[in-house]
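Hey, resending since the last one bounced:
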Amino acid sequence: MYKYVVKPSDLKIIQDLINLSKKAYELGLTIGRSGNISGRIRDNIIIIKKTGRSLNKLKPKDFVITDLLSDDVPNNVSSDYLIHREIYLSNPKIRYILHVHPAKLIKLTLSTKETKIIPQTYEGKIYFGNEIPIVREEHDNLHRILKKYINDINKRFLIEAGHGVYVYSYNPDEILPILEELEYIASLSL
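The structure tokens again:
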């Protein structure tokens, strides 16, 4: 098990994670105990939500600190830890990842076999380009093949068909607007 002493500078990241989680929950982007969140606190050190915790009521004790370069996976870490790990390892600038299960976006990915969503709005095309990719891979295998989907860091998100979306960024303030716009585009596409 990795031992790390939380430093005062880490407390801002922990508070960012708590605030972002609560807002995502309040916006209805996830329910119950689903979803997870993590933040990079050092080059290869992240803090990630423990499994079974609600994004709505997170406290500092609800996180696990782990080393991205270690093969040891903490026992109580989020079930999507390996996906978070691969996203962080793909780009050292990524500082935050939020994974949620927005209902309209999931419904849209289940209602089609397409591997992309075509934004119908002017804003959607500005934010995301002419198409938004949908990843159609087995969830348990996703972390192994993730690199081919996250090469374009400008996208800053990964939509997993039938499961949810991972949004990643250097700045936590960028994450919710991306999620809200994706959910809005999905609502117009249904």
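Residues 10-189 form a domain with the L-fuculose-1-phosphate Aldolase fold (CATH 3.40.225.10).

Sorry for the duplicate.
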